[in-house]
Design goal:
By secondary structure, the chain is of the alpha/beta class. It is built from twelve helices and twelve strands. Belongs to the D-isomer specific 2-hydroxyacid dehydrogenase family. GO terms for molecular function: DNA-binding transcription factor binding; NAD binding; phosphoglycerate dehydrogenase activity; transcription coregulator binding; transcription corepressor activity. It is an enzyme of class 1 (oxidoreductase).
Amino acid sequence: MRIFKVNWYPPANEELETLFGGVASFDIDPIPTDPAYRIARERSRAADALINCSATHLVPADLDDFENVRIVVREGVGYDNLDLEGWGARGVPVCNVPDYGTTEVADHAIALMLALTRGTSTYTEVLRADPVANWGFAHAPLIRRHKGATFGVIGLGRIGLAAARRAAAFDMKVVFFDPYLPNGTELSVGYDRVTSLAKLMEISDIVSVHTPLNDETRGFVGAAAFAAAKPGLILVNTARGPIVDLDALAEALKSGKVAGAGLDVLPREPADPDHPLIKAFAAGEDWLRGRLVLSPHAAFYSPDAIKDMQRKAVEVIVAYLNEGRLTNCVNRQFLKQPAPVRRAS
């Protein structure tokens, strides 16, 4: 069994070679620095399975080049950078790894909130500039009490629920919007439910985004959502950058309707240095000071999470090619014919 890992980034998990004896080889192709880069066809033809390691980069080859691939796996949770329909038309299942990094992302969402509402990032910044003159508590503009504040969650899936539980531990009131969960979910989790994004924005002090990126959610948190927002809202996004309209967020921050934002993801990654909001952040403009916290799509990361992610991606492949057992498939609706499974020798 030959597994091709594209858009790979370190560190490598050396344990994989010993954990999976049925894997003949791992062919690893790092994230290309040249946008014109294409994978050589002899490499793509040799693969029995394909893993896309990156959350944002496309596979640098045509689907037809992978004529022997029987399964594709996104080494992570999000799969918006894979052609679900195209692979499905070829009878190839696309799977993801939903059961890693949940705690890391939920922790990170709360950490971004705390960086703003407890001022930790702002205090560090001003004290680095002058640890004597800036020794004071008034430098962080968004300090507030968490007990009794409302924490709104967009998308109460695995990560959204984990973030909600953490917010509840701060004695915050949790409210969620998720039209795809069945009636009664609110009774089982003990959180209030609203039926529109506008209502969630209207009543929440903090809103944390935990929905996947698709045609429905692209730009979902935009001008209309911010217009409905409770004055002083803080937005946290650890999901996907394009879910939040960055132009609309910049306007809402500039007007003061939104008090602050903690973003782990952006519509363009790395950050677009020419976007007005990113420019203002990088320049340390006074109006934005203490109101925007950025991290580099790192919410998923811990050394343990990386190992889990890499191992679980291979587990999905081995289970399918060796046992015919398909797990975590995200393109079932596009699988036009059964995908033939060749037993690995």
